[in-house]
Amino acid sequence: MYGVILAGGSGTRFWPLSREEYPKQLLKIFGNRTLIQATLSRISELIPTEKIYVVTTPPQLEQIRFQLSLETHSKLNYISEPERRDTAAAIGFAAMKLQKQDPEASMVVLSSDHFIKDEPEFLKSLCIAEKIAQEGYLVTLGAKPIRPETAYGYIKAGPSLPLAHGASKVEQFIEKPDRAKAVRYLEDENTLWNTGIFVWKVRTILDEIDRFLPELSEGLKEIGKTIGTEKEEKILQTTYAQLPSISIDYGVLEKSEHLAVISTDMGWEDVGSWNALDEVIPRDNSGNIMTGNVVNVGSTDSIIYAGKRVVGVVGLENIVVADTDDATLVCNKESAQDVKKLVEVLKKHNGDAHRIHRTVIRAWGSYTILEEGTGYKVKKLVVNPKSKLSLQMHENRSEHWVVVEGIATVTCGTSVYTIPANQSTFVPMGVKHRIENATNDFLRLIEVQSGSYLGEDDITRFEDDYGRVLSKKTE
Amino acid sequence: MYGVILAGGSGTRFWPLSREEYPKQLLKIFGNRTLIQATLSRISELIPTEKIYVVTTPPQLEQIRFQLSLETHSKLNYISEPERRDTAAAIGFAAMKLQKQDPEASMVVLSSDHFIKDEPEFLKSLCIAEKIAQEGYLVTLGAKPIRPETAYGYIKAGPSLPLAHGASKVEQFIEKPDRAKAVRYLEDENTLWNTGIFVWKVRTILDEIDRFLPELSEGLKEIGKTIGTEKEEKILQTTYAQLPSISIDYGVLEKSEHLAVISTDMGWEDVGSWNALDEVIPRDNSGNIMTGNVVNVGSTDSIIYAGKRVVGVVGLENIVVADTDDATLVCNKESAQDVKKLVEVLKKHNGDAHRIHRTVIRAWGSYTILEEGTGYKVKKLVVNPKSKLSLQMHENRSEHWVVVEGIATVTCGTSVYTIPANQSTFVPMGVKHRIENATNDFLRLIEVQSGSYLGEDDITRFEDDYGRVLSKKTE
């Protein structure tokens, strides 16, 4: 069995902790691991890392790769979609890749940002699911509801399958219900939460895609022909964007006749909005969940996420406050679904607060914009041990660097020299330059940019460890 | 008539916009002027600037002086209390100073942070008050209540004084009432809000202080003897801290028999807490007051104060959000009085967020701490035209300066040189240095400090335009 982790997400529902380029799976919402780290860790118990594929898009790839590199030293596989085309395309593309390697493969499809409390139960359910999948079923894990949740889809289980305990045919997929229906479903032991965790043979899902989504199937086949050839990248770029954008649920599962569901009790939660944290994190005596630099006077039943900045809360009830370096959310718990709408409004504005954090993680480390003014910008750069930025040049700005920790190896024009902490150097406009950290410790430096245009896109790359020589978009 | 503006305030009730060293009167809560600027502007219509005295303490003096210098070019008088000893001492001290100059003086006492809508009505009332004060009365302006306010004290007016229309003897001072009483007072035309605006002859108030607060009177007389002599400063420092700390209301007005009140309709408000803004600022169609970088989805009846940072609010009702560079408040309107308690908690913590803003205003300009880390600190300095910092030295840190706007005149050791924008310089540890802006434009520079100890108190001053050579506390 192969593992396929769908690492998508638009970073809207947990804004401002999540951003378009830093979605929920990259957050440590609970515990010491980010959600995607926890997802990998969980499935690694069953599937060796080298048989796990992470599907994502280029803006998120760098940070996912970084986080997962902290989780495992083994080789992990990445599938990069040129752009997001919903789950049917992502799953179909992954299935196509797996089929090339192993036509008899089966695959488990996981979201990267779910919460599962009971891992042994989860793994046990997957084993049952795999057994059923071998018989040609598309298998979904269903979770027994523990409250009348209106934010989840449901599955109505039909007759039991004799193949395995807890497995049934699917009678019906049910959309997110209203409150009254959700209360009824809670009492019906045959109605389960649809977890979006799927197990099937690669052959089965590709056949069903062919049957119900012929246009998608066509596109995938075209891409499939070039997999492993030199044409792959080019065909992928042109064809992928044309694939129909539809979810696997709507596109295939609601139509297929080969559906099974495993009833589980694994403590699954989708954690789809700020108020959903109440379901997965223990509250204090006042019903609050609070983290970071919070000072509370008399608030109850509230969720307060702070970082280093001081967040003072007074007399709140059922309020969510989420604070980051550059943006703050204050939201009524009942309106948590509307955070999406807020992010839509932000997108229409000029700013970047919907897309990136004040600190932006890069393959070589990170940068933080400390200050911007007319004609200047101040950044903190952190360069990871044994890492270097690209050899680059700016047409419209010069840069002053003051090293505050570690030792920088600087290329400036034809010179190469080192600067220790408490020394500085200057890179004139139009001169090729590079910062490298050749040591085993972190390098921290303050960069003061000066010039008439200070956009991140004023960069020409000559050499880069991360294949970004063609790109003009990132430092 | 002389004007005495009491510029006190502990900066707690409008935290985080107000701070201990940046209290409410320094804020532009409404309109284009700060509250103290508006106070000066208002009273200047009646009293020439050179007859106006501003009473305050050293931590606030610099910023008050700066703000008022933008309001008037004429000479304004400052009385600096060595420390705060409540209103009886502040008023007594000011009266003592005035008496030395002009024994027949009368004075109007104003708070620096009140709101008055109808200025002509205010000035008219002061003229009436002055007339009555000449007869030996302690006169208070009373405002006709327009709602059952429980946050204000009240005055019960007694028999009319034949001296002027709208003037009465005072029957009783009434403490902040409960809601039921406040409703009753609203219906009684003889019960007025106590505005804390007083008019009296200097001689009258000093006589009454002598009668009811003999200990305070003794201390004031001792200070009075030295006024204008070289001993003044020293006696003030030792004696002032020993003065009894009591309000003029409790200490004198509630006991005196020579009290009068003028009934006015001047649209006075104390604006004593965040929720009081609803009384003085028009709300939008959803009942909100919003300013700065706010994105709102469906909030109503809320007060949102943002700056440059993004503040997103979703579905709030009757909530106050106040955001600054380093701290955010989220408060239920009904709990607005408890913001004080929050600041008390903050004081007990290590941080500075109760005391100062991220940007600290100085006589020479301002500084902003952009970043702090182990062994380094990054600041932005803005130096006003024709201003300079002190000639100083640091024992434990060196400093890198990158000029990003304007021209710096730098003293470093025995050298003096200028640096234009996009150039930098280095000041080694233990070397005397100074930054000066000799131009007519603003100077902006980025300072990167590097060293084992980076506290503001590592400073030895050799020369200073602002008399701070002895002080170790401020840059």
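Chain B has three domains: 2-269, 274-345, 359-463.
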